[in-house]
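Fold tokens
===========
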Amino acid sequence: MASDAVSSPAVPENFDLSKEQGVERLHKGAVGLIGVLFLTVTGAAPLTAMLGNVPFAAGFGNGTYVPAAFLLATIVLTVFSVGYAAMATKVSSVGGFYAFISLGLGREAGMAAGVASLAAYSVFEASLTGIFAFFAGTLLTTHFGVTVPWLYLSLFAIVLSAILSYLDVQLSAAVLGVALVLEVIALIVFDVAVATAGAGTHFSLESLNVFKVMTDVSEQQVGDVKIAAGAAAVGVFMAFWSWCGFEMAPNYAEESVDPKRNVPRSLYYSVMGLGVFYTITSWCAVSAFGSDGDMLAKAVADSGNFFIAPMGQFVGSFGAGAMSVLIITSAFACGMAFHNTAARYMYSLAREGVLPKQLAHTHPKFKSPHVASSFQAVLAALWVGLFAYFMGTDDPNAQAYLGLYTMLAVLGTMLLLILQALVSVAIIAYFKAKHPGEGGMWSTLIAPAIAFVAQAMLVYLLVIKLDTFGGVGAFGSKIPHIAAALLIIGFVWGMALRVASPAVHARIGRVVYTEG
């Protein structure tokens, strides 16, 4: 893919935004380390990840070994972050994956990454409005006797995200920070309550055995619940899925204080912090029932209450009610975090001339990418509208949760895993070509190589186990083809720009920011 080997020597390696005139810039120094953490960790959405992913992983994947899957994911993603953080110390760019891959593997590969990244974060926002609408609709019906079609609730979430993202990034960081703190508190209360309950729980250190992580749930009958044979790979994949969002830190480099220091720190803190938290919380969740059979039955037959029921049992009705509300705010905050990142990818592509220049405008007062943010809202609404048109709006569980949320999340996660694998290769190539001998062999060669193998294996597992995720329908079965098509379109687009517009081609993924 490194096709730039034949580029003219006159073409600059990169374009320093801090030295260019007439370019509308983002709000410099708007957020510090804590702000970047709020903007990225909220994308991982701890409460949504736990309530949405753990029951599915347990009931249809590896059962009691779900905590081991989270422990394994912590190890692999920490290794991935070693090279990713090393790259972030050299390159500050709002383009994230797009810029890193362009610098390491060439502009055409960078263009493929730009298209895939934009698509991934765009569909993630639409996906999260599905789970937001499902839980918000359930709450309205249960407590207020009001039935609102899930489509309207999804669109409401998109409009509110667009309004908040239109304003200063500091407001987004504040809103996401409040949501993050509240959902973390709820999960800590859950963990402490279950861990200290004693009677009615069944903790086992065997659940943390990473060497048993590929143990499938066996076919069995628990009371009236029939449990089908699971696929352990599903449990492993759901664990990795729960981190989607942590990798967004480099996208805030231009708005961060001291980005070459704070972005790498944010990556490490978020990966390892989430890893410890996820492992403990998932362990408490699968241990909160009287037996493995009871746990599996709950995961398969009543997954929506997998956390809420133990919360009510060990904490009380107030705790269960609070968790029912906070899953809604968590889903919204997560969607808003992805909205922000998608808007910044559009802004980056437009600033480099790949997309229409209008998308590169920043607000005169807030310095937010307000045009790109508004356009992302339109794209997210389009995704939601298409799902509603083809699937209907009368069954929130099948349409909003299993359809919109699950299928778009699988598509976005597949794209991110592919991009993370490519970034790992790009890091090796970049340091070998531009900074030989710097960074050390572990961070610039061994760790990225291990990360590449792990991410490639995850993509393979996702493809061969797609039917377990419900990916056999009209849309689901085409997810691998859609992902491949997006990458090919981007790569061909980059090749076309090389001939049709050399000046634009030269800037693909190469606009960086050196101040600070």
